[in-house]
Amino acid sequence: MLLCAVGVKPAEAQRVVSVPVTLRVAPVLRVEEATSPEETARTAAYVEYRTLVRVSANLGYELRVSAAPEVAGPVLVRGAGGAFEASAPGTWVSVLRRARPCGGCAVEVVCRLPASAVRPAAVPLRFQLVGR
Predict the structure, then answer these.
(1) CB within 8 A of 118, min separation 6: which ones?
(2) What is the distance between the alpha carbons of residues 129 and 106, in angstroms, rounded to a whole number?
(3) What share of the chain is helix, strand, coil (3-state, %, to 5)?
(4) In whole angstroms, what is the distance from residue 115 CA to residue 47 CA?
(5) Do the Cβ atoms of 26 and 96 come closer than 8 Å?
(6) Which candidate, 81, 80, 84, 77, places its Cα nearest to that of 95?
(7) Torsion over CA of 42, 78, 90 and 58, rounded to 10 degrees?
(8) Pick from 49, 38, 46: which is nearest to 74 by CA?
(9) Whole-prediction pTM
(10) Per-residue pLDDT for the chain (132 aa), expressed as one digit of tens each?
């Protein structure tokens, strides 16, 4: 009844019509929090720490990590490929590449500091999210 009222014949109402639609969504890339570093291994050369980073993103993203400026000596960060990579302040290591959105996901970040370094009270890293 309504179809006839707007000029569409009942026979034509059975056709599927495609209409292009453009949606605009404001991207959200946010590091919500990072837990206190937890010691997971110790050798004569280094101490390994792990921290969980909670991420919110409504698009695919890459999580990058860099050593904090106050860290003395090299920091090794486990990269996306599983190998440890050297990081200095301003040098970013890709820790995770994710193609899909993630709301409130926890990402494990593992780093190694020289054994002579003082145990950090906070994570000695800076985090960066880049949209993909």
Answers:
(1) none
(2) 14
(3) 5, 50, 45
(4) 5
(5) no
(6) 80
(7) -130
(8) 46
(9) 0.75
(10) 444 445 556 665 667 778 888 877 788 889 999 998 899 999 999 999 999 999 999 989 999 999 988 877 778 999 999 999 999 888 999 999 999 888 889 999 999 988 887 777 777 889 999 988
